[in-house]
Amino acid sequence: MPPAAAARCPLLWRAPAALGGALSRPGMARRLVAASAGGGGRAPAYGGLLLDAGGTLLQVARPVAETYSSIGRRYGVTKPEKGIMEGFKRAFSAPWPKTLRYQGDGRPFWRIVVAEATNCTDDDYFEEVYQHYAHGDAWCLPAGADTTLRELKDAGVKLAVVSNFDTRLRKLLKDLNVSDMFDAIVVSSEVGYEKPAPEIFNIALDQIGVEASKAVHVGDDETADKAGANAIGLECWLWGDDVKTFSEIRDRILTTDNSQ
Fold it and tell me: Rounded to whole angstroms, how far apart are CA atoms 201 and 61?
């Protein structure tokens, strides 16, 4: 999870008369899907959507520094939340000597992050923090994410998660009731490659059966997501910059004005 994930989880449109008058954007998307299925409209602009997890699909339910601090009080953590956040970012930006940050359950890496952020090396404290983020109630989906995923899936778009994460990810997606929407879930700790390595993107594309030129990736990191995806000819939209909501993602994929 990049530092951006430490942030707090955070019109009416009139359709042409031929489509039946005023419709919401979700309603329009469904009409476009139905028209496409019936041969009356174009196919989705992209055949596949790859999504980053932490910081994009998964948002922390409350700021990381606040969580570290509140749990840490029982273990003597007195560092201010601002200092905790600075340490958290510092740990993520430091070079990692091993091939993967997240190996298996990711504990070695996260132990360093928690210690750097809080100056606390108490094993019980670390374990409580680690377990806190192993449950879905510590996370949330951006507004409209589940509806967008369902509409894209109904439109025939193949969906994949491509994430630098540890083995907790599959359970988190299940806890948040979205794991069954994905045709592939590719986790760095399982496949042995981390973004921006081309292999992790190619594994996802192979699993969903879509060429890079026919898919788009959405993530929140300029290097890991955008540079990594672009290196294999995969378009990337940066979350929070190119797209800010899941309805924007839906509208750009289910457009009638763009075809691949």
Answer: 28
Q: Please state the rounded mean pLDDT for residues 119-146.
A: 97
Find all residues with CB under 8 Å of 43, minimum gap 6, and list them: 36, 156, 259
Query: Any idea which residue has 């990736």 for tokens?
Result: 217
Helix axis angle for 145-154 and 25-37, nearest 10°, is 20
Listed residue (119, 13, 139, 140) closest to 68, CA to CA: 119
59-60 and 139-140 strand pairing: antiparallel
pLDDT at res. 194? 97
- What is the SS3 assignment for 35? helix
197 near 43, Cβ under 8 Å? no
User: Cβ contacts of residue 68 below 8 Å, gap of 6+?
Assistant: 77, 81, 84, 88, 114, 117, 118, 129
The structure's pTM equals 0.83
- Picking from 200, 180, 181, the residue whose alpha carbon sits closest to that of residue 189 is 200
- Tell me how far CA of residue 9 lies from CA of 140, 181, 215, in angstroms: 7, 21, 27
The H or E element containing residue 218 is strand 215-219
Q: What beta strand segments (E) does 55-115 contain?
A: 59-60
Q: Secondary structure of 144-189 in the HEC alphabet?
A: CHHHHHHHHHHCCCEEEEEECCCCCHHHHHHHCCCHHHCCEEEEHH
Asked if residues 13 and 24 have their Cβ atoms less than 8 Å apart, the reply is yes
Going by C-alpha positions, the residue among 168, 141, 144 that lies closest to residue 60 is 141
In this predicted structure, the answer to whether residue 245 has a pLDDT above a threshold of 60 is yes
